[in-house]
Amino acid sequence: MRVVRRAGRTRGPRPERPRRALVALLCCLPGAAAVGAVLLYASVSGRTTSATVPAAVPRPAAPAHDAPRPRIVPRSAWLDATVRHAQPPPRYDDKVVAVFVHHTDSPNGYACSDTPGVIRRLYAGQTGARAWDDIGYNFLVDRCGTIYEGRAGGADRAVTGAHTQGFNHRTAGIAAIGTFTAGTPVPRVMTDAIATLTAWKLGLAGVDPRGSVSLVSSNGHSRYASGATVLLPALAGHRDGFRTTCPGTALTVRLPAIREAAARLQGRI
User: Structure pTM?
Assistant: First the structure.
């Protein structure tokens, strides 16, 4: 006789049937409903499925150290038919990574309303006696802190200037209108304007005004041999690249404070 043993038999859970039923259900549902069903099943069964793992959240981009564009008076405000002459198209670099500060070595006692006339005379001297194709400085700042566009080509662009022999490429020249030899007061609004302009211009290339950059000397008339790669301040004085006293001792000693102010405007401090 065959004995069938039923007593004492232990039946465990049979998970395959619900799973098979779920698969059959999913086959009949549209995509969005199917995903919802998977999530519901995972929450009820207490199991973790790939559908419950949150998607990776991208890291926020590092903050850009740019600064607002200051108000810049266009060159049309100072250049008129009495001095304008034909000139070749502007030349450009890929970006501006350094700024050279100059003084114009002209009288300090001008009225700020007379600044356009002062710039016209500077332009006439550089394009006349020196036979340059345009004014050399990319920007000029007067004693009242007003910023003027100098060399043609667009204030927002990396215009190749004619301000620091050997280092005109990838740089911008900012001229403080006046003469700032030792002991000469430098107006605070002037240095503030230079800092604002520097912060904006270097910020376009992500350059810290307090740092240093590598520049290549284009000719041996600078402080360095032609072709030499030189580490210079991102905010430099004319004398850093050329044998001169420009921008004057009084303005030179203000450069560290201008660097700090420009870095602050970029949000680095």
Answer: 0.77
